[in-house]
Amino acid sequence: MGIRQVRVRDLPDELIDEFSAKIAPYSVAITRLEENDPRLFGSAVLAQHRGIHGLLTARHVIEVIRREPRFCLVLRAGSHRFAVELDHTTILKSETGLSEDSGPDIGFVCLPDYSLGQIRASNSFVSLEKHRERAASLDPSTGLWCLLGCPDERSSTNSIPGRIELTAFGLACVGPPPENHEDGEDFDYYEMIAQYSDSNDLPNSFGGVSGGGVWQARAEGCNGVYTIREVVLRGVAFHESRRLGNIRAIRCHGSKSLYHWLLRKIESECGA
User: In what order do the strands lie in the sheet containing 181-183?
Assistant: First the structure.
C-alpha cells in the first residue's frame, strides 16, 4: 500500500521520527553571538555544491546577520555551537521582492574552509547536485513533505555566570504534498499548510523558521509497517501568512529556485 493512500494523522510516530532523523543533520539555527543578548535570527540548511559549502537560508535572514560582525550556528541537538566571522564569508542572495510574502527571498552564505571540520563533527552538508537528480526523478505530488526549522518561541535562555545561553529547538512539520505550486522564470514557490488542532503542538508563530528546509520523502509500507526510503531537499521557507481560523500557510521557495537559480549563482560567483 502506497503512502498516498494513508492519512498523515494515521501514520505511526516512528515514521515521522525516522523522517526527522534523516534530515536533522543538515539543519541548523542561526543566532546572535553576543553572550548577554543572544537572539535567534533564523534557520538554515547546510549545503554544498562542487566544493563550495555554506548555509542555504532566506534572504531576509542574511540581511539580519549582516548587521553583526559575526554570528553563531547552533548545530545538531543544540549541543554544539560554532562562531562565524562575517568577513570570512561570501554572500549570495536574491533581489528584494515586491512584498515580504511574494518573494524571491532566498540566499546562500559561503562558509570558509576552516569552519568545515568542526561543523562536520556533529552535522552534515547536503549535496545540491545529488539532490537535484533526486528531485528530477521523484514525483512532487507523492510521499510525505516536511518543513524543519527552529521557531523563536520554542527557543530558551539560561543565565549562567558571565553570560546567557540560548538553546534552539527544531520543529518538524510533516504533512501531505503541497497543492499550490507557482512556477516562474527563475523562481518557484510552494505553500506548506499548518493546520492547528488539539492533537498537535504547533507554535503560535513560525518566526525563526525562515530559512528552514522543505523536504520530500518517499516512503513504503506493508501491513501497517512503514519506512523512509529516500529524502530530497525541495526548498526553503521564508514567510508565514496570517492565521485564519486554524490554518496558516508557510510560503517556501521550490526546486527551481534551488537547483536552477541558486546553483547558477554559486557557479558564477563562487567559482564552483
Answer: 171-175, 144-149, 213-222, 225-240, 247-253, 188-195, 181-183
